[in-house]
Amino acid sequence: MTHQTVGHASAGDQDGPLADCPASALVPPGHEPRCPIDITLATLGGRWTPLVLREFLRRGQATYSELSAALPALSDKVLSDRLAQLTSAGVIERHRTPTWPPRVRYLLTSQGRALAPVVRSMWEWGTARRDA
Fold this sequence. Notes:
This protein is α+β, with helices and mostly antiparallel strands. It is 45% helix and 11% strand. The protein contains 6 helices and 3 strands, in the order H-H-E-H-H-E-E-H-H. A hairpin with a 5-residue loop joins strand 2 (92-97) and strand 3 (103-108).
């Protein structure tokens, strides 16, 4: 099954910012994405991931407890999974202090801060839809 994407550059403008990825960049699900949109979606994929990222963009850093309090609808499993996902994507870093009990703090990386315009666009688009 194929899908049609809206918002593409016209046929004469193959070098535009939304130009199609070459067929060689499109990979089957389960493989490492190479298309820029697929890479972004893989990083932000999953329900709650953009909201966890939003909290980091607000705070810069947070503990698990702070995130859990800020996002009470998330189960512990989902929050743990999203933190692992964002850590493996290089969006946040996990820092463990060598104290007892151990304390873990997550910090937003420069790659994470670079996602701010993406999250802001999502916010603006959602606000316009909500208010329409």
